Amino acid sequence: MELRDQSLAQIRERLRTYPAADRVLLRALQQDPRAGAHALAGSLERRWQREAAERLRLWRMFRFERVLRARGHRCIAGVDEVGMGPLAGPVVAAAVILPEGVELSGLDDSKRLAPAVRERLDREIRGAAVAVALGWSPRVEVDRLNVTRAGRLAMRRALDRLPVRPDFALLDGRGGFELGLPGRFVVGGDRLSASVAAASIVAKVYRDRRMRDLDRRYPGYGFKRNSGYGTAEHLRALSERGPTPHHRRSFAPVRRALEARDRACRTS
């Protein structure tokens, strides 16, 4: 069927069903006398531009891995932690080894992704990865060690739990602890390295699920919405209800809530 014999609705369905670049279709749309066809041609060109920009962005995200593979490394682990700033819950880290040539559309720093996109990418990463492992540091360690050391411990645990031994590790952050294998710390690594970004997504999805579990056990704090961060809702509940066993005592808002509770107990 010639393009001119198809309705604009049929052409839109063709564009939806066959998203790959189709130069013949583009030329036909540009030559079609209908204004709607010209609009579809412009839409198709813009989509190609977005797809090309996304391919370039993802290619750049793999530059650390390309350099390392050129130097002979074949098993590169990306490592990242999440949950450093919340008032409650564990610090969680993930280590991910991606295979060479993997395609993960939309891969990015977990903080820049919508929850549904993170969930999709978590499934795709786990399905494609050579190996995935998680490590965490619970609230008591955060209070005992401080959150920076707890985060490092979670990252080391994630690396140690990988079922495949990496020959190099890329980690988000500035370093400050021994890895036990060759590695590099990358500031902003969850935006700059595909392996680290994948680890940030796996860690974030896992931790958010843990916080949703806590929300069911301790309703009223909004854990399923705020993941333990100090939102207005969370701070209000902390003041009215007091801390749960999963609140970090070393964090100032929690400490103030405990002190207020103690004062109330002494004067009652």
What this model shows, in words?
- The protein folds into three domains: 3-61, no CATH class; 63-208, Nucleotidyltransferase, domain 5 (2-Layer Sandwich), CATH 3.30.420.10; 214-267, no CATH class.
- Helix content is 55%, strand content 11%.
- It is built from twelve helices and five strands.
- The chain has helices at residues 8-17, 23-31, 35-61, 63-70, 115-128, 139-145, 147-160, 189-192, 194-217, 223-226, 232-241, 252-267, and strands spanning 76-82, 91-97, 131-137, 168-172, 183-186.
- The model has no long low-confidence stretch (mean pLDDT 90).
List the strand order in the largest sheet. 3-2-1-4-5
Q: What is the terminal separation in angstroms?
A: 85 Å
Strand-pairing-aware structural class: alpha/beta
Q: Remind me, CATH topology of the largest domain?
A: Nucleotidyltransferase, domain 5
By CATH, the architecture of the largest domain is named 2-Layer Sandwich
What is the count of DSSP helices, taking H or I runs of 4+ residues?
Answer: 12
Helix content: 40-55%
The major pleated sheet works out as: 5 strands, mixed
**Number of structural units classed as domains:** 3
Strand coverage percent: 5-15%
Shape: flat
Number of strands: 5
Mean pLDDT: 90
* CATH C-level name of the largest domain: Alpha Beta
Write the element-wise H/E pattern from the N-terminal end onward: HHHHEEHEHHEEHHHHH
Low-confidence sequence ranges:
none
Q: What gyration radius follows from the Cα positions, in whole Å? A: 24 Å
What is the CATH homology-level superfamily of the largest domain?
Ribonuclease H-like superfamily/Ribonuclease H
